[in-house]
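User: Can you help me understand a structure? I only have the sequence.
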Amino acid sequence: MLGKLSIQSKLMLMLLGVCISSIIAIAYVGYNNGRQALNNSIQNQLISVRETKAYQIERYFRFVRAQVQTFSQGSVNDTLQGFAQAYQELEDQKIQLAWHEQLKNYYDQDFLPKLAGNTEGRPLLYSYLPQNSAARYLQYHYIAGNSNPIGEKEYLNNASDGSEYSEIHKTVQPVYANLVSQLGYYDLFLIDAKTGNVVYTVKKETDFGTNLFRGPYSNSGLATVFKKAVNANEPNFVAISDFAPYRASYAEPAAFVASPIFDTNSSELTGVLAFQLSANEINSVMTGNNDWKQEGLGKSGVTYLVGADYGMRSNSRFLIEQPEEYFKAIAAEGLPKNEIAFIKKFNSSILHQQVDTEVIQEAFDNQTSFGIAEDYRGVRTLNAYRPLELDDLDWVINAQIDTQEAFEPIKGFQRRVLLATAIIVLLVTLIASILSYYFIRPIRTLIDGFRQVGKGNTDVKVKVKSKDEFRELANSFNEMVDNLDHQKKLVQEKNEENEELLLSILPEPVAARVKKGEESIGDSFSNVTVLFADLGGFMELSETLPASQTVGLLNDLVSAFDDAAEKYGVEKHKTIGSGYMAVCGLSVPRLDHAKRTIDFAKDMLRIIRRFNREKNTDLKLRIGVNSGSVVAGIVGRDKFIYDLWGDTVNVANRLQSIGEWNTIQVSESVHNRIAEFIEDFEPVERGEMAGQEKFPVWSTKPY
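Assistant: Let's start by predicting it. Here is the structure, written out as tokens:
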């Protein structure tokens, strides 16, 4: 039958057959590749979100552990002993009948009704009312007799009862309340290790003054971490409890972290410092401040934490955004009515939302993976899950998104591929009669490729099925594009290397100005703090060690200083020989630049002590700190530096030069800024320096 057709018809049939077959094959391959690419993209996105959130949570708990460990080794021991002694004196205090009645009324009318609404059963008065005199005395004056409403009892600094306890409290309370607020904790506790008495809290809830060995909260998470810290009897020990309903806080979810306090003179365990953690900080991390879309999680994407009891440790997105649909879904999945009632009561899914799903079970089996499963709402979801690396806490993290939303782009892509295939087949059929199209088609493809390259797209690949000169031309084009792509990547790498080098020399804002072409850069900064530190004993050490070992030790020490500077928001400026210069408030303006610099200076002394112990060296530091205005700018052309000038810099340098070793010398401007935060600086008499008049100087005792 084909023999009866004209050559033109045969050519058209051949052309149509080849073109249609090719189009279908390409569409099929393109669809499969596109679907796989979208699947990989969704998976990589969920894994990326999971790892980001996991890192933030793990970092948060490392930070919490470091904070409680650090604060327990500070001056808190003196405060604890003062409170403990004052507490014992109150045991002999007679409790007036009116005080007892008012305290009882507070429990009956304020505390117990609110607690009963948040718990199952009916809490009894005498199960919570303190029995000893000191606890009743303190709870009356700072809770029941406190005119501030519930939730604001901490604003009473002085009960004005004439007791030694209140004399200490009026000084300590503003400082610790500010500390708790700034660090994002809910409460702070000082607990006598010998008696188990909670001798101080910031929030002044009903755990204040109670005994953790036999009192109403002896089985709480606070009592657990307290007992672990006491039993460990180690200075650097830290105990953390998981979130659980805490009745002193009206059964709100609470976790605790604690570290023992030792007397620095006798090395005797005197007490325990504990912080109560709020779920707000964790929720803020896991929900991105309730902005899931901004984090690339679409309409149904969410990340959440699950504890060993399979209860949530962060809030559900669906409770916040779609509460009605959420409660219908969890009710349909069989969550007990009492748990649903608590979720509604607290407006939180923490502890009460059970997530006993397949992927969570695998995560608790120490698996890090990606899979599809039904979630706690009964909805099929894509999940990226893994266990978290948290000391004392058995938690897992899951990042999920509904499959319907996740696969919607794939379905849309499928529709577009089918539509595009149909249109192309129709167009090829219509123009198949034009034989010349077949011959110029490779040329059009190459032209399109060149246009893509002209637009800057260097990953273009041209496919030509023929084995003639057009194919050779296409191969040459592809080789050329590969070379262009390679050269483009090399240029990008060089640009990135140059930018990293520039940022290593200059602060980021100054580097940005240099890249814009500014040649003469100089700025005045009216409010910064400058630190100069001089390392002593290094020259003697370098004479006894090989050069490579000497440089290695210096590098380790300077690196430790650099890490500490970054932690406190202080900018390292430069090192000159054994000198170290840093500044705070320069690139990033900070209201507390002086305090940050002093905290950094103290940390430098701690680092040099630890370094001496670990490396068996005898190095020492002299540190000078001054606040004021400076001038900063770039000096030089080919080999330039970013330097600081001014009296502020000069005085800081002179301060360190006149100080004793392992001390911090500060000027009057620094002392005035942070006097309320420091207790270990004393005024010293200094003579004239470089022809200048005497001026006030404060110095620490040698560490």
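Now, to help you interpret it: Residues 687-692 have pLDDT under 50 and may be disordered. The radius of gyration is 35 Å. Let me know which part you'd like to focus on.
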